[in-house]
Amino acid sequence: MTSRTDRAPGALTVGFDLDMTLIDSRPGIHACYLELSARTGTYIDADLAITRLGPPLEEELKHWFPADHVAPMATLYRELYPAYAIEATPAMPGAREAVAAVRAAGGRPLVVTAKYEPNAKLHMKHLGFDVVVVGNLWAEQKAQALREYGAGVYVGDHTGDVRGARTAGALSVAVPTGPCDAAELRAAGADVVLDDLNGFPDWLAAHAGGAAQGAV
Question: Keyword Hydrolase: yes or no (predicted)?
């Protein structure tokens, strides 16, 4: 794994969450839950499930399956996922421009997500995002990858993303495009709350410009 030790001193690395930050995963996840329900004969309210994306899959499955069934159901879901969720999932508005803004600033974009890493990588490949992807990390655990890659900024839509950024000592930039509204994100300690990723390039330009002035 490429780490921050391979980066030039002072290089900008910006981490992004995946679900409801870079991608609108609701259509694909909805379809996947419906298929899981059909295959297992277990009722899953897919409409409800997609309103609380962010935490690990197992947390949602606990609402629908007995505890001893959660692990095998998670395995089945992840096996179904490529066929039902990848094609159905678009990029969020402003996502491509946000990633491009990091590169334009001489930085490196990074995805750190709770999603199963192979499936997260499929999303990025399908949508044409050439980024490093680290999966299977939730909330404070995300700090592991953010520190490893030397990310100074982490962008996410969930209070768990804010906690991950703060644990890593990174600046928390939040967007209320997922299950958490702006007030929740601020209360969790987000340093910056944007309406959505459309505002990220201008914010990054100002942030990078301020950092450069401070270094003079």
Answer: yes
